[in-house]
Design goal:
about 30% helix
């Protein structure tokens, strides 16, 4: 079935969250953010959080990849099915959120104070999350400060739909946007996604490991690789000193 990239709609958030939990099931960072793993309560909380964050951030562009069925049929993921364009059915198979900074980004006052306010106050889970998530969030903001360009904030693909080009559609959108802006693109990668990003021209510039207090030394380390894609120089056109179209070696006009 064909795949299509489109902007997210309000009704999509409840459908993408189970995919997010499935995609990040083996990631300690995701489990730290949302203890307890997949549950209806976590699904509802994260869906509300994602929608609120996206609506409040004018730089955020949230995209979903859908598999478009024929005559109301889909290949997989019936629990995520919804009516699509032209009366056909579609199933969401991946999602991603880019931050597009058309002007240099500067954070709001108080940006260094990162709170995990979706977790219960005073708990060890919240304390640990604020240390680790806060460290990553502050590094992310410092990296973006003063920059124009595109930052890949979030990307995940339904595990049942790997190796179909779902992630490429989302990454390709941001790369193209960065080229249009004649600006950088950057992201934080896990080992699982590194190959996709390297194929799109991203290079590792830093291996980041969050340091935590001794009392949490038994926890899995939280690490990521900061990757950047350099500004792509626009193609230059060869012009004729005589003005209009010039013949190339094959005899056809250069336009």
């Amino acid at each position: 079935m064909p795949l299509r990239l489109r902007p997210i709609e309000s009704s999509d958030y409840a459908q993408i969250v189970p995919i997010q939990f499935a995609a990040f099931a083996a990631e300690p960072y995701h489990d730290m953010l949302f203890p307890g793993g997949p549950s209806l309560a976590n699904y509802a909380m994260v869906a509300k959080m994602l929608e609120k964050e996206t609506e409040e951030d004018p730089t955020a562009v949230f995209l979903v990849v859908v598999e478009v069925g024929v005559d109301g049929t889909t290949d997989a993921g019936q629990e995520h099915r919804l009516d699509g364009a032209e009366g056909k059915q579609e199933v969401i198979v991946g999602a991603g959120r880019w931050n597009v900074y058309e002007e240099p980004f500067y954070p709001k006052e108080g940006w260094e104070d990162v709170k995990a306010d979706w977790l219960e106050e005073g708990t060890a889970e919240r304390e640990y999350c604020e240390i680790v998530h806060g460290d990553i969030k502050r590094k992310r903001i410092r990296a973006a400060t003063g920059r124009r360009g595109c930052f890949l904030d979030l990307l995940y693909v339904d595990p049942a739909h790997h190796r179909r080009g779902v992630g490429q559609l989302i990454v390709g959108w941001g790369v193209k946007k960065a080229d249009e802006l004649h600006a950088m693109a950057w992201l934080e990668a896990t080992q699982a996604g590194m190959g996709l990003y390297q194929r799109n021209g991203f290079q590792i510039i830093e291996h980041s490991v969050t340091q935590v207090p001794e009392k949490w030394k038994e926890k899995d380390k939280v690490e990521c690789w900061i990757m950047e894609r350099e500004i792509k120089e626009p193609a230059r056109r060869e012009t004729s000193s005589r003005g209009s179209a010039e013949k190339n070696e094959g005899g056809s006009p250069v336009r």
